[in-house]
Specification:
382 residues, single chain, 8-stranded mixed β-sheet, D-Amino Acid Oxidase, Chain A, domain 2, 2 domains
Length: 382
């Protein structure tokens, strides 16, 4: 083997976030797999996600993936043998509707969700108030509710569990950045930072918002942008103030109290308008708290945490083999849903890479949809 060249592998995965780790876990029983990331496991888009797992989406493809993922997570102890219990809390999600128009949108979503087996339902203002103590339903026309939705108290334990168990299966993690990809005969050459390189029969790019820069030199234009997202956190509070997770699309607001007692609140538009900052976002959060969840009115939010989504024009991920680049796969553009859909994404990509199934779920999410003007718009992004 020439100097500066590492051993070949069947499948190389670029990106050790939850998406890349899940793909590796699903592949590891049947292929030689190496995951490359010079920033560490779960350090990019995965790093600050608050652990939400929900099934309430507005497109069938998103609903099916979310439903499959939640079923996987119900058996996470047996499947991944986590060293630390991630502690899933089925607290329920309420999508609050202030206008009849938004209620009609959620009614359509609930009908879709029910058709694929998701137990969501439409509720009136009074029931919303009963399900969410501390909520003021006076401004609501109703809402959409799913009691089996919830969150992981320790989401990083899920990330670690995928990483640990895939390595028990024989996959490896390489702490090196991939600088570029080059087609090399029947396979691919990965050039690593520092000058070394390695070969692989197939490569999966799962590098979130860093994926476009890696693929651009190959003539592949990924319509993925990095979008800022910010969360306000309180200090831990002894009293339980807000059990379900509350979302208002119309107010651009989401809030939840975590298991450690801290409350998170988000202005969902934060970071989307140039020049806006913490004070503007804080005022909008405060205004919605006063209107919708006044039980949080005296909670302070001293901590602002910034993260990033990898966003696509239709708010759907990009999956599948890249046309005219045999053996080169993409799994990116998750639009903030990496953790909640990781098990389904991993299974879909692994099956397709190994040629075991031709799941039609992937057909609508390929890169080609952007050239063919066949977008699958998902509005239920939080």
């Amino acid at each position: 083997m020439p100097n500066g060249t590492q051993r070949a592998t069947d499948i190389a995965i670029v990106g050790a976030g939850i998406t890349g780790l899940s793909i590796a876990w699903h592949l590891a029983d049947k292929a030689s797999v190496r995951v490359f990331d010079g920033s560490g496991v779960g350090s990019g888009a995965t790093a600050i996600q608050p652990g939400g797992v929900r099934q309430q989406w507005g497109t069938e493809v998103a609903c099916l993936m979310a439903r499959e993922a939640l079923a996987f997570y119900a058996e996470i102890g047996e499947r991944l043998q986590p060293a630390v219990d991630p502690a899933f809390q089925a607290c329920g999600y309420l999508f609050a509707c202030h206008t009849p128009e938004e209620l009609a949108v959620q009614a359509k979503n609930v009908a879709l969700q029910n058709r694929v087996g998701i137990p969501s339902r439409l509720i009136g203002p009074d029931e919303a108030g009963a399900l969410v103590p501390g909520l003021d339903p006076s401004s609501l026309s109703g809402g959409a509710w799913c009691e089996s939705d919830g969150y992981f108290d320790r989401p990083q334990a899920v990330v670690a569990a995928f990483a640990d168990d895939m390595q028990r299966k024989g996959a490896t993690i390489v702490d090196r950045h991939v600088e570029r990809l080059e087609h090399d005969g029947s396979g691919w050459r990965l050039v690593l930072r520092g000058g070394e390189s390695t070969q692989a029969q197939a490569v999966v790019v799962a590098a979130a918002y860093d994926s476009p820069a890696l693929l651009a030199p190959l003539g592949v234009a990924l319509p993925i942008t990095r979008a800022s997202r910010s969360l306000f956190y309180s200090d831990p509070i002894r009293e339980r103030l807000l059990e379900p997770l509350v979302v208002s699309h119309e107010r651009g607001f989401a809030a939840k109290q975590l298991a450690d007692g801290s409350v998170l609140a988000a202005d969902l538009s934060a970071g989307t308008v140039p020049g806006e900052g913490r004070e503007v976002w804080h005022r909008r959060v405060r205004a919605t708290i006063t209107e919708l969840v006044p039980i949080l009115e005296y909670v302070s939010f001293p901590v602002l945490v910034e993260g990033f989504y990898d966003v696509t024009p239709d708010r759907q991920p990009i999956f599948g083999e890249i046309q005219d680049h045999d053996g080169l796969w993409i799994a990116a553009g998750l639009n903030g849903r990496g953790l909640m859909m990781a098990p389904a994404v991993g299974r879909l990509l692994a099956d397709s890479i190994l040629g075991e199934t031709a799941d039609p779920t992937l057909d609508s999410l390929t890169l080609a949809r952007f050239d063919q003007d066949e977008l699958v718009h998902e509005a239920q992004v939080v």
